[in-house]
Amino acid sequence: MTVADHLTLNELWRRVKKAKDPIEKHRFLAVYHAKRGLTAKEIAKITLSSTRWVQETVRRYNREGPEGLRDKRHQNPGQKPKLTPEEQRRVLEALQGPPPDGGLWTGPKLRDWVERELGKKLSLYPIYRLLHEMGFALRVPRPRHAKAEGEAQESFKKTSSSKFRRLGRGG
User: Do residues 1 and 34 lie in contact, with contact meaning Cβ atoms separated by under 8 Å?
Assistant: First the structure.
């Protein structure tokens, strides 16, 4: 495998040792071994990577030099938000009151409101993420069995707790 003469073997090894970012260190190590004359298959075994990854890493180094081995994900701002700050403010205002059909706000209700009022069709995932970012938390009532008898349960709690106290187990 041919390696461009951007850095000497010793300089590559210094970069391996000096690199703080583990991704960058891994890439420099692959190029270092390629410069030593190892095959992509041998480097893949040493670095626990695929031969394709080794080949791509060396190609990138040959094309872009040492800068090409940096982890550029840190500079990636990510996807633009689905809603503008103004639209997010309107959503927050809407959430302060009840939903149009009454009851409690749910993800699907908010999604429908956003589509109707803001003209943006979103799936539930960005809706739930937006709610989380705004500090809202899921509030679901504790499940109750449809045939549960409240009075019988209360009566059981009162009588069973006294039995447990007598046995020295309860509080």
Answer: yes
User: Taking a C-beta distance cutoff of 8 angstroms, is the pair 51, 41 a contact?
Assistant: yes
Rounded CA-CA distance 12/27 in Å is: 10
CA distance 171 to 159: 13
Distance of CA 46 to the CA centre of its chain: 30
Model pTM score: 0.51
Q: Which pairs from 77-82 meet CB under 8 Å and 24+ separation? A: 82/120, 82/122, 82/126, 82/130
Task: Give tens-digit pLDDT for 110-142.
Answer: 999 999 999 999 999 999 999 998 888 877 777
Looking at the predicted structure, is the pLDDT value of residue 148 above 90?
no
DSSP state of 80: P
pLDDT exceeds 80 at position 28? yes
- What is the DSSP annotation of 11-77? HHHHHHHH--SHHHHHHHHHHHHHHTT--HHHHHHHHT--HHHHHHHHHHHHHHGGGGGS-GGGG--
Tell me which H or E stretch contains 100: none
* 32: confidence class by pLDDT, cuts 50, 70, 90: very high
- Amino acid, res. 46: I
